[in-house]
Amino acid sequence: MGGITVQRPAAAGAGRASGNAGAASAKFDGKVGKVGQSAARRRKQRLLVMVMLGIPTLYMAFFLGVPVARGIYTSLTNFALTGPGAAHPQFVGGSNYGDLFSSSQFWDGLKASLEYLVGSAIVGQVVVGFLLAVFVERLGKMARSVLLSVVVLAWIVPEIVVAFIWSGYLSTPSGLANVLLGFVGVGPEPFLFKYAMPSLIVANTWRGMAFSVLVLGAALQAVPTEVIESARLDGAGEWRILRYVKLPLVRTAVATVLALTTLWTLSDFTLIFVLTGGGPGNSTDVLPVYTYQQSFSFYELGLGTAISLVLLVLACALAYFYMKVAASDLKTRRA
Amino acid sequence: MSVQALEVRPPAATGRPVGTAHQRWARRWRQGRKKLPTAVIFVVVFAFFALPLFLLVSSAFTANASINFQAPSHLTLSNFGSVLSGAGFGQAALNGFILSAGSAAIALVLAAMAAYPLSRFRFRGRVGFLLGVLFVTGVPVTALIVPLFEFFREFGWLDSLLPVVLLMAAFATPISIWLVKTFLDNVDPALEESTWVDGASRLQGYVRVVLPLMSTGLLVAFLLNFIAGWANFYVPFILLSSADKLPIAVTIYQFFGSYGTVDYGHLAAFSILYSIPPAILYLFTGGRFGGSFSTGAMKG
To answer: What span, in angstroms and rounded, lies between the C-alpha atoms of B163 and A39?
Structure first.
């Protein structure tokens, strides 16, 4: 931690994130050099930086870092809430991971997680969300706010409520969805048994759509109209404008939405837990639900921790992707 | 003046229909047909999002509603009445408030601390720290819950509110740092520099001058964390167990997990009462969940 320097006002303007960087730097230009840099002062500032960053860092490290470090150790023992593993956990090396990777239930869980991820995050919220954002942009003001308010309402409702709404909506034989299907002579269908994963995907898309529509909608609106007009003058149709003009310009927003929705979807527990509980069979036993079952239904904490850590590694990969996207987004905004 | 304006206007711009009645109808039909796909998509999308919400509202106002849907014959407030008078609702609401307000407040204090050096100094490791904050923002609590459960068990913290508040604060801190730093970046450093001249320290200038200036931004950050905490089901579900400590999110589950199918109207009323605070607070944040937070996660 050698070179702490006071952020000079001139640099401050240039370094300002987002928006009004230009105006700000002009405002601060006159103040360069006002701040002195004596050795004592530098030491004091270094201390200030270390204390102000140190306290929050230690706080987070205590609650997030320590459990992870201990979790890695626990996953190498036969620790359990009941039985012999409870009193004297033994070091068992990689055997939890061996058990895990050789159990078909784990691979079922991974497959369910991937289906849920691709279906509701990538296809539902990003692809359909993008199309919906394009559609919303074309609507009149009134129609747009009517549509957006139901979409946002679905998002504001807490997750557990979403789960109860959909468990009633899709229930057999006469939940509202089946009543409506009855009007056209279809059903009743036992959605949550016969089409468990598709039902979850639809419910989660319903819940998460607002985020992608809002973020992508904002990005689409920021595309300069001159660019679109000139493409139109060159004879490009609506589809080509969308594909070759708008889409490249909102690429960063798409990547951000992709990173965050996949992250949230991968770690989603509540909706699946309440709607299907992982069933029927293991067909919707996504990793968070599988973790819960092993740890808190069967009390196999060693195994549960191992599943947790696999989930953590996958989440970290997505978090890393998100970090990269967000960092490049910041760079382009500053430029 | 208006007369003049009318006179200059070319005849075509008056909007008077041209042609016979039949031609007019034909034109309207052509224009209407062009709009038809838009209208159809609008209705389909609207119905997809509105119908489940309609089910919730309709059940809440129907006496003895079950998951077998029945169009309400007359509206009643009885479901709301029995939820509000039922034992435990007030306690659960209070617990939920303690968890979300407490964790949001602690996260905000920690964020205000970290944001200052990150915004006002250039030092080695600054960018790395910021990237680390972004990274931790993305780490989901679901992946840590089992290690956290063991951690809490070891400390004897299971089933007590304060440690859960502190934990939820730790999860809310990274995104709060990011938000507060962004707000702080937009405050002119000259404002605090003027306080140093009076002999006040940097820290005093920050606390007395800059933070009050950012109060709107700080409130938004607080509210966003409050909303996320209020909706948090999994953390209290795992780490708390006594009925008098559970927040509404878990109470709803415990209360109706087994009876929900029978007493859906009751469940719906409970759900609506539970959903009202975040909906109102969302309006206060000016819909900032979406657009301006494209960098930085919310909900989680």
So the answer is: 42
